[in-house]
Here is the input.
Amino acid sequence: MIEAEGIVHRYPGFSLSVSRLAVEPGEVLAVVGPSGAGKSTLLRLLGGLEAPQRGRVHRRGPAVYLDQTPYLLERSVLENAAFGLRLKGWPAQEARRRALGWLERVGLSGFADRPARALSGGERVRLALARALAVEPAALLLDEPTANLDPANVARIEALIRAERAAGRAVVLVTHNLFQARRLADRAVFLLEGRVVEAGPAPGFFQRPADPRTRAFLSGEMVW
Ligand code: ADP
Here is the structure.
């Protein structure tokens, strides 16, 4: 669904270099690694928010990208949920009907007429997910979607991710939470200093990592 080939992207003092990375429909790919490894940069390149300085990213369908503090409009919850559909040209009434369906799926149906600014952190992420999913993207790129959220919201968002995978979407999940990566990932990638150290199917990646640096990171022994 998304394929990166030979990408190189540099910032002052940092370079990301990935020879090949792909995510397929119906698959959750977890990207793990220490802070500063280049996880968010990789996600932005996969999502087309930035173009790589070298190489190419091929997307076979529309992708949506969500960061951990999603931007919401100073409008009602329902208007936020319907926003992407309206942008795509859906008539107001149909956009509203679909958006209400998505609010129900993310557990926000009672919130439709409230101002979005009144939502808690977990509710904001769920609203941003509803807005993103309403346009039925082929791929979902999530940057730390559950950072700083309570366990109930974490569980809800993980359930949504599973449902999207079951619906055939390709999901790339950047997470610091290794337990979450184990719970959700079909495949995982360990990124360190802008390079892929190891990539492979879960649970092998988590239970029998081949590279000593992956082992050190997964066991919490890597100091950075
Ligand atoms: P991670 O998500 O793994 O924490 P990032 O992709 O955010 O890592 O950052 C990787 C490196 O690139 C860091 O050193 C960061 O400071 C740098 N970086 C990220 N975005 C930019 C940018 N827009 N301009 C300059 N440097 C950046």
Notes: The chain is about 35% helix and 25% strand. The longest strand covers residues 2-11. The chain has two domains: 1-62+137-224, 72-134.
